[in-house]
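Q: What does the assembled structure look like for these inputs?
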Amino acid sequence: DAKTTQPNSMESNEEEPVHLPCNHSTISGTDYIHWYRQLPSQGPEYVIHGLTSNVNNRMASLAIAEDRKSSTLILHRATLRDAAVYYCILRGSGGSNYKLTFGKGTLLTVNP
Amino acid sequence: DAGVTQSPTHLIKTRGQHVTLRCSPISGHKSVSWYQQVLGQGPQFIFQYYEKEERGRGNFPDRFSARQFPNYSSELNVNALLLGDSALYLCASSPRTGGAYEQYFGPGTRLTVT
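A:
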């Protein structure tokens, strides 16, 4: 699996936007970029994923660089509930790409 | 809509015993994956089943086995439990397999081996 690099931790204030970066310089043309988060004492939660174009959903936005070697997860207005570990994961498009390979992720702290 | 459900929520077993964990996927999802999460680490992939066939297996010993039933629910079995098997066991479901599809996780089963 192609690897991703994320900062170990980030801090934000409540109701401010948060930009979580992810570098994936060895990404292949068929790799999807997935983001999951894990709140304390819970299972991981799907956030968003994309291939080439920027994506928006009710939880977040995903901005993908033109060369696809980096991406940014954007939380538009952080809340205390957004405090979690955020994982950026690459997955190939074929059916044999069955698993998620979790790294260490970014621990996001949200200050009230 | 109901999400992924897992049972039991918590379990305490003794070394050498056997355990069965159960997972019900989201309705319409045909793929189920199992992950193990040891305290302080990210989840590690154990198995994936799609359409009742094993599609992938992680680096786990043969003491770990799984199966998927015709209704797409799944069981994870672990034999001859070791202290190191203590972990949160997560089940995830997906409409199909492959990177285009997201996975939805259940709350997990917390297994403690004493």
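Chain A has a mean pLDDT of 92.
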